[in-house]
Amino acid sequence: MYITKFSRLGAHVIKGLTRGETPTPRVQYTQFLYSRPLQDLKHRFFSSTAAGNAQEGGDEDKEKISVTFVDKDGEEKQIKVPIGMSMLEAAHENDIELEGACEGSLACSTCHVIVMDMEYYNKLEDPADEENDMLDLAFGLTETSRLGCQVIAKPELDGLRLALPAATRNFAVDGYKPKPH
Amino acid sequence: MAISRARAKQLFSRSISSVASNPLHVCVVGSGPAGFYTAEKMLKKHQGAEVDIVDRLPTPYGLVRSGVAPDHPETKIVTNQFSRVAQNERCSFIGNVSLGSSVSLTELREMYHVVVLAYGAESDRALGIPGEDLAGIHSAREFVWWYNGHPDCRYWSPDLKSTDTAVILGQGNVALDVARILLRPAAELATTDIASHALAALEESSIRKVYLVGRRGPVQAACTAKELREVLGIKDLHINIQEADLVKTPADEEELKNNRIHRRVYELLSKAAMSGPSHCYTGQRELHFVFFRNPDRFLDSDDRSGHVAGVRFEKTILKESAGSGKQVAVGTGQFEDFESRLVLKSIGYKSVPVDGLPFDANKGIVPNIGGRVLINSSGDHSQIEGVYVCGWLKRGPTGIIATNLYCAEETIASISEDLETVLAYATSLPKPGREGLLRLLESRNVKVIPFNAWEKIDIEEKRLGSLKNKPRDKLTTWGELLKVAL
Q1: pTM for the complete prediction?
Q2: Which of B72, B226, B406 comes nearest A168 by C-beta?
Q3: Which of A177, B226, B231, B419 is deepest in the core (most CB within 10 A)?
Q4: B131 plus B85 within the same structural domain
Q5: Which amino acids does the record list as binding NADP(+) (chain B) (predicted)?
Q6: Which of B84, B258, B264 sits opposite A136 (nearest CB)?
């Protein structure tokens, strides 16, 4: 548990760095081109203390935003998310049941979240092709679906509400048919 | 009387009873995504459950290890999560145990309160057309197992040297994986966990032209955008798509309107057809998307050597099938031959039944409702007590890793409900569980591979890999695997 949390943080910090170097929209090509070297770095960062600083270090509340997760049964949980942290990491830090099979490397759709207010959805940068490729396969896709690993906390997102898709409802015995979008 | 009172007590205190007194013994057969997600959800939902995951291989993770392409390392990250499940103190991985030969389903049912079969689909659908058994025709599954170092395909090997053309039947993601492995520069694969024997063969491969053939059109292509984007982006690869094939009918437009995946796949194909040079230079590798062709027969070589020399296709057109609203390919009576000495059929996997398990040969699945195994696939809904299915064996060989998340959730919901009702009495009685299974296997001289023995394999493969600048160099024979593990 300890190690995986750090690995996630490590990957996140590195992603943040590469993003910082490129003013272009997130992921578009950075994620695509660097995905393999990033993997390597990520593993090297397992034991790095630098990775830990992003989260600890006495963050004040003004550097955090408030995000509400609404689970499959409609139960709400409000959490504080430090600026720069992805919703996938934030969910895991707060024991919210959001899967993250590929640990934020844009290779699965398990951290699918639904942005509940269109106003907030519009504050996000458009999903890159690679995120859309994964969203194609997400269960219960909606117009405001995103991958939790690609939604990064920023001040404008304070008050964000994210729903976890109630996917089991749509799951039929003879195989799931993706909902038209 | 004392006994019945004790039973009653157990019955009603199941939820709070400790693991030690009378745990709920659960056996999951198959350690791929369906098996691991089932185990994970079972452990989480039932604090009194002990879950054993058996696998016929000495290695866990099923198709994550032997199906996911070597150049998709991100997709394999999910094994971190699975290994945490295997290390849960109430969970055991027991490898090298084959359902049917090491232990029967009847025996598992005697030893465990609940048996969940999640052993997937280890065989292939057949086309059922003349010439299918000619040499040089393989299933894509074998090819995938071969490049992923599955021990059952270590000594299987496609001839990549005596021909320059390969025909792949099917246009799904497996077909695209196979095409990509054949066409990507071998140097780019050298730093992946591809099996060394496959890398060596691909380095010497003379295949430079691949046909990906589908019965229907670009609107119906079964692949996903990610895989398609990848194959279209291979360095120095000439892509050939007939522009005429991209013309859409009103029925196609309707289909696209309702399907985001198909819409995005179609857009990628059209873009690829419009861009890029129309001719390739000498020696350049080529990928041809061939639509509206249904394989009719395989052609024998002139010398009747028993080796395939080509495929005869019937051209098709699309017709709306009555009722379903779907468009199906129907033959036009026009034929066209493609020359090729290597044919890979990527038309679907197929599950294999075991003794004592009902099987719907038509659908290739175990008849079930929500994962509860039914006695037969006709209208009779009687259930086989304590036996469940998950994954491909339950719903057929489609979907992605994450599909199993929901599939497992559904099966676990059925089990949980049954534990309160039809299984309440049976589960109040103790069963031998893991201890019984291990005793039985020992008496049969089956060498089981626990998780820590797999970890020895894992460490050795990573060590071997580091010598070659690969994330891992897989051990690919039964002998090597068992030797390192035991």
Answers
A1: 0.87
A2: B406
A3: B231
A4: no
A5: 171-174, 215-216, 227, 399
A6: B264
